[in-house]
Amino acid sequence: MPLRDRLPRRLLQLALGLAAYGVSISLMLHAHVGNQPWDVLHQGIAGHLGVTVGTVLIGMGALVLLCWIPLRQRPGIGTVANIVVIGLVVDAVNPLLPDLDHLAGRWAFMLGGILLCGFASGLYIGANLGPGPRDGLMTGLAARRWSLRGWRTLLEITVVVAGALLGGTVGIGTILYALAIGPLAQFFLPMLAVTPRPAPAPSPTPDPCPA
Q1: What is the reported pLDDT for 204?
Q2: Exposed, middle or buried: residue 15 (CB in 10 Å: 0-12, 13-18, 19+)?
Q3: 202 alpha-carbon distance from chain centroid
């Protein structure tokens, strides 16, 4: 899809999608019943370094993007925005959300975070301005050998184990996210994907031999 085609709509959709994705991460962090797989690692690193989760999100996103170089993946506007915007939103929203004591409220945060993440994924992927750094890493690896599902499973198990060893929160939310995010994104994406403008109809050819 050409970059300039419907660009204002796509930029707005990208911004809304990344902001919603950041809110979904914060909701799951405050649920304390299991984070998204990569956020288990982000939280664990943040705790050991004494920095915010959003700071780690930005730093890890930049490091993952460097892994695109040997895979010959090309980042887009959305790739760079993904690295910066989500981390900033997480750090802005985290202080605003309460740490709930009631299990019902924590489950509401968890389920709301998973559902919002699926919707946000449909928004920012549907903007067609480039994948996130972690998604691009998986598709780049899958293009060379093995399968996308295989690489995704391996990478997410790796980051969950590493994050858990560092103190990140693993729980039922992590499992539910892993099971639900694919179907949710698949449900929302067709409704939110931006399609190219239809090509203008060709002008009628004048009759060289008018009656």
Answers
A1: 61
A2: middle
A3: 40
